[in-house]
Amino acid sequence: MSTFLYKLGKSAYDKPWQFLIGWIAILGIVIAMLAVNGIHSSSEMKIAGTESQKVLDQLTKELPEASGGQASIAFTVPEGERLDTPERLALIQKAVNDVYHVDYVINPAKLAAEAGLSASESSQMGTAAAQANQGTQTNQPSTAEIPPYGPLMVDGVPVIGVMLSSDGSLALFQFQFTEQQASLPKSVPDAVVNAVAAVEQNNSGITAIPSDSLKSTPAIGSTEAIGLLVAAVVLIITLGSVVAAGLPLLTALFGVAISIGGAYALSKFIAINDITPILAIMIGLAVGIDYSLFIVNRQRRMILDQGLSAREAASRAVGTAGSAVFFAGLTVIIALFGMLVIGIEFLSTMAMVAGVTVFVTVLLALTLLPALLGFVGERICSPKVRMKNSSTDHKAQHGFSIRWVKGTVKYRWLIIIGVIIVLGTAAIPVTKMELGIPSGASANLDTAARQSYDAISKGFGEGFNGPLLLVGEPQNASDTFTPEKLGSLVQELQKHDNVSLVTLMGVNKTGDMAIISLIPKTGPTDLATKDLVNDLRAPESSIAQNNDVKLGVTGFTAINIDMSSKLSEAFPLYVGIIVILSIIILLLVFRSIIVPIKATVGFILSILATFGLTTAVYQWGWMHSLFGFDTGGPLLSFMPILVTGILYGLAMDYQVFLVSSMRESYVHGHRGTDSVVHGYDLASRIVLAAAVIMVSVFAGFIFAPDAMIKQIGFALAIGILIDAFIVRMTLVPAVMAVFGDKAWWLPKWLDRILPNLDVEGDKLITALNAQSSSDSKTKANKPA
């Protein structure tokens, strides 16, 4: 491996234009495909096979106009005023009618007519049942008291889809699309918002607040540039040259452009979620900068410490550090592609795009980077740096790392126990971690999504922010729904302790499928709402038995509940797969039993502490103002799987670069703790710089406008911070010191089976030194 990469690096260095033009051509092809196919992405995150998705698929087949997403508009007036004045009622009624005439918006009058009812009768049936239910429960304790409400009336006729709070200060307009929001043209939500905005004209005093499903928030903002700026500063400090520092940044940006451009170019044929490219940018920038940094730093050290030419140093750097880059990148790719076994489409797409991004980044580090080094030539180390290096004691340069590792080795048992206690304490909140999808309840107070959520909760109850869509079918396939059966089913549903309002939306043409809207008393992310969904689905429930009906539950809230459950079930399988595969790779790289096991145990400590701190901050709201949000909420349901895969791969990067230096020291004659100290001294400075860069890049996403990107950015940043600084650079040398030379023990039978990958290029360096010695002797013996 190292010999092949050495030759590849030398070829790229000698023929830089060929490699540069080749990569520019690839970028050109990507841009051309992008221009032809366009950009296609959506916010859809569906999981095939879940109960809610099955119901949606059934609706799409049987009654497609009822299978779409739900949205709402809250109309408010200043405190002490009412909405039901003639002028304001006219404005609201016009706005509602205008929305019903927008393409893709369902007009409930048509669905109700198919059930043999007028739309007003359908609405009144649900409202009457709700009021009757409240009346029968007035003397019973309630955990979620709901204020009285009723339909908004104009000249004695209800405005379909609109409810008015008891004090008249809030009207809630709920409606449904024929498609899920992710599949709607962008013009549709905009048309709805524009239609209701008319009520705010002519000093009416009305404020129209759209729900979060109607407002698109940019996934990222401008703070990500700060992370890149910090990375640039760290590169300049580490490499001591603006030219040298610019190469890793240029390589990383080139890789991100090709990878993300390629993903978008194929988005016409492969469904791309809005978060997918953001995730790939995070990973591409982080590993792209780090991998190039390792190679450039190795080249400079060879020039300054061994007096090699820039050409020879670049070739050897690609052959040695490039081998470590290859296997580190392979570990990240395996961790990402392990998500494919879970069988969740949008996660698989995320994994593939991110994995391909890492693959492209590794190729660029091994080909384009040495080509760029060929353009720079000997200028990679300025005369000033060379002079300073020749007059500076090497030990003085690395004084802190030597003192740190010697202290860690000396107090190794105290360090090991201390790290376990600290990370174990940080992991405690994991036991209370709740998964879901961030909603208006956790949005910032100054956003329309949060204002809408709070207004609706105050006027009607939290459940109105997360309506459920029920599909009822007779147990006997030959039966159909009559108005009497429908009325009985609605009243039975309304009697449930956690139901606020039930509204019949209609039936299909054959009369054997009823569509019902149900409003819980509790919020979309409340555990009681999850229990309600499970109760409604249970075939043995009194509702199903008394009405001889099968109930399916879907809607945004139910979809999120099912998604969280599915991902929680898949998480242990995923972790098991990536751990086993990665242990095999680490076994090949280090030729040791203890090192891969130790690396994995250290990662488990890291990931538990990471999720513990993420739960404390984003769910419990600790230090929320510091991280730019107002209210805690459930963690993103697919965040644990995503972060675990990425962090495992990146953690093994540092494991490879740090411990491979210790192995190199051991192979070259250092024994016991000396190999730990010497290897740590060689690699710690560059691993420290790489970790700071990764933390900076990921931290730049913490202040992104999108709540999901915030959580992912924080988890990755804090995860790298913990794993690199506490586990790899503190715990690892302490544990290695405990085992000493036994850390490199490998059974003889296994030693014979495993191929020697020569990751650090020992064979390559030996061969090159032998060739150099032979050439010198030949030159000396050659007659003048």
Automatic annotation (TrEMBL):
Quote the InterPro entries the UniProt record gives. Answer: MMPL_dom, Mycobact_MmpL, SSD
Q: Which residues form a coiled coil?
A: none
- Chief site of localization: membrane
Write down a Pfam family by its short name.
MMPL
UniProt keywords, alphabetically: Cell membrane, Membrane, Transmembrane, Transmembrane helix
This protein's source sits in the domain of life called: Bacteria
Keyword Transmembrane on entry: yes
Give membrane topology per the record.
Multi-pass membrane protein
Q: Which residues cross the membrane?
A: 20-39, 225-258, 278-296, 317-344, 350-377, 411-430, 571-590, 602-621, 641-661, 682-704, 716-739
Q: Where is the composition biased (Low complexity)?
A: 124-140
Q: Where in the cell is it found?
A: Cell membrane
UniProt keyword NAD, yes or no: no
Q: Name one GO cellular component term.
A: plasma membrane
Q: Where is this region: Disordered?
A: 124-145
Outline the extent of the SSD domain: 227-375
Q: What is the name attached to this protein's record?
A: Putative drug exporter of the RND superfamily
The species is Paenibacillus algorifonticola
